[in-house]
Amino acid sequence: MIATLAASEHDRRKYCYYLRRSYIEARKDTKWCPAPGCEHAVSYDGGNENYDVSCLCKYAFCWNCTEEAHRPVDCETVKQWILKNSAESENTNWILANSKPCPKCLRPIEKNNGCMHMTCTKPCEFHFCWLCLGAWSDHSQKTEQSILEAKALEDLHQMQTVNMDKVKELQGIGVGDGEFEFLLNAWKQIVECRRVLRWTYAYGYYIPDHDTAKKQFFEYLQGQAESGLEKLHHCAETELLPFLDEDCPKQYSLSHAFIHFKTKLAALTEVTKIYFDNLVRALENDLSDVEFQ
């Protein structure tokens, strides 16, 4: 009634806009998608303990804290991880602009190249990290973990922006959607596994050093899952290429070679899903299956 009586079309649209927003924001089971520029709302039925939800815009986020979907780690771990990385980023420019004393002999060391691995001059020759001043031998594992996390982020972006377009191209070359459904399932699994893998590094970072058994079990599960993911990723991306180059894709889609590829990729997708389901379940249970001596 009020919208009908509004003085202008602009006023009516403005009224309807705020009416819709107030309706969404008043509901406990509905939230606006936090993705930049998205105007969709997402509902959550609360039927399980998994807070990860997906919007129509394809952005996945946590219903509880509205950060990016982060299963299997909890919201508090995500908060600590984000604050830690934010603080390190803010301090990096200041740190890199100053000379520092060697943490062993206290002799001033000036950074003159891009590498974080520093070596003090003779006779000290102590190897240390420029950012945290810790011994390089102790720091290298954390450095490797950061590199792996960055790799997971890069791969996830690649999956979402480039490789999904390949699937759409395949569906437009005269072959029915069902013929390539296994490939779409594989890429969806890769995207999900890369996201899960990235957050496992946050979980591993906060395992206390004295919990040796838990750390070893975590590294075993993570390594098993990552190994399976790399095989799946290689098959989906590299072994598909010969079929994309064929002049008659529909004909080759029924060839013996393609059927073999299809069977292999479907099997790798299922195995990788099992690995990651086991990893997620174990981390959500805080690795309770570990038997401490």
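[next item in queue]
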Amino acid sequence: MSELRMYVERLFEGKVLTPEMIELKEEIYGNLVARYEDYVAGGMSAEDALEKTKASMTSLDDVLEAGQDSQPVAETVEMPVADSAVEGTGSARAEGSPQPPVQQGAETAPARKHLSPAVIAVIAVAALFVIVILGFMGCNMFVADRAHESYENDQTVSSVDQTTGNGTGQGTSAGDQQGAQDQGQGASGQATPTFSDPEDQAEYEATVAVDDAIANQDVAALQQAVGNGTDTAAFVAELPLGAYLGSAGAPEAQTSFAISYENVSDLIDGDAIERALLYNAVTLMSVYPALDRVDFTVQEEYDSVYDADRYVFDRSTLEHAFSNASNGAIAQLNSSLFESAEAWDQVRDYVFRENFRERQVEFAEVDR
């Protein structure tokens, strides 16, 4: 979800993003999302679950210090002094001769001081942390973005740009330049990672721009579009992916929209495109109450029209999915969702949930 993603980014602000640090960041994000969903599934409100999830990971320094402490401890336990002391004692006695009783304060005592309860406690804490991390990884599958996979496997991060501003929180179109809300300021005010490979940098920025367009959409602007006769093509152009709009339109009284996106940048991660399509379908159905179906055609850059992907989102399917996921809190897709920022943020939260998004896109995808 967007708020947890931003929270994790803030935890890593100022850190050099080596491949190991990037992998740790994605693991922590996946664990926090899993913990948040467990809280929500247990009946906790979304706000309380979010706060409790954040409280469980308040500082990255504790995690890094625990990882650094574990290696020196292992080296301290096996001190060569203990071995030499034992060998020296053994060689000083003839084989088969009587063994004198061990006196208190004997020479072997200092070597045993390294196995103090404090040392054992440090080892136990480090081991417990590793077990918890592995446990969450085993219970939850997190599919990394294509851009992230690329720089995790092939590239290293050369430096971190400490400048701030709207940065990757802006897109190339009116639909990707919504930045009015504080709640979704993706990379705004945070350090932006810089990659050694320019293509990786471009993929990261293009993907984040689409996600920010979803998170930063002004709910007040959506509310104003309800029932005011706004040109449908102009309205769709204000939504995420609006820069690639080829055609869109249907009179408001009709029950379906046919929308095509053309020459969509191949730098944008496929998961981000799916999130944008799901978000746009939900938004259109909420603005136009008579709309029962939204038919998207997506032609990526350098692909022919025959390679275009098609997705058909159905109102009844989406309403059923949202109702089940929210325990009836989101029963219908209509203008009531625009009455407060909190209500619309809850919708956006489900769009950013990986399992929810994958399932709805799977239902909508049309095989060719």
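[queue empty]
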